[in-house]
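User: Hey, my collaborator sent me this sequence without any context and asked if I could get a structure. I don't really work with proteins. Can you help?
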Amino acid sequence: MGISEDDSGKYALGHSDEELHRLEAQARIVDPMTRRFWERAGVRPGMRVLDVGCGAGHTTLLLADIVGEHGPVVGRRNPA
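Assistant: No problem. I've predicted the 3D structure and written it out in structure-token form, which is a compact way to encode the shape of the chain:
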């Protein structure tokens, strides 16, 4: 089953409160692994980061925590 041009910018699971809670729970579970990934990739305090395709922004918030108050982070959702 392919994605039509009309559906290409839509999140397949929707944006209900239930789905947002599921994504938050998922982020809590995988955050330690994701943090290690970013740190091993070289993300450090003070860096500037652009998170393209950030979705609900959980990884963006994690990156902001890693770079700290002197490292700006911008999240950019995929265009709809």
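In plain terms: Residues 17-40 form the longest helix (24 residues). You can pass these tokens on to your collaborator as they are.
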